[in-house]
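Repro:
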Amino acid sequence: MKTIQSIVLSVMLLGGLSFSTCSKAHASGNPEYVKVKAISTEIREKINFPVELADQGLNEKVVVEFQVSAEKKVKVVSVETKNEFLKTYVKNQMETMELENYQGFEGKTMQISLFFAN
């Protein structure tokens, strides 16, 4: 049953990513927009809903500013949320992941909004 709950809760994790230095990233035909969308999708797929918060009525937005190195590593610049556990959890999750869709964005600051709800 816990496995099913984790899968269902993971599906509820939503996110959006913005590239803070690109004002034209919103046009769907723009290659930068496509790349930003790929990065956003990859991050959402790699961050699971925290099991420790599965039984709480959670409805929390987490905004993360980050950079990706040429070695595919994520460096978190800042995390904004009211939930301190979630803040630490998201920071740790992001800093241990390697991104495949980072090319062209090395060292640039990006921002993702993640929504955790159960």
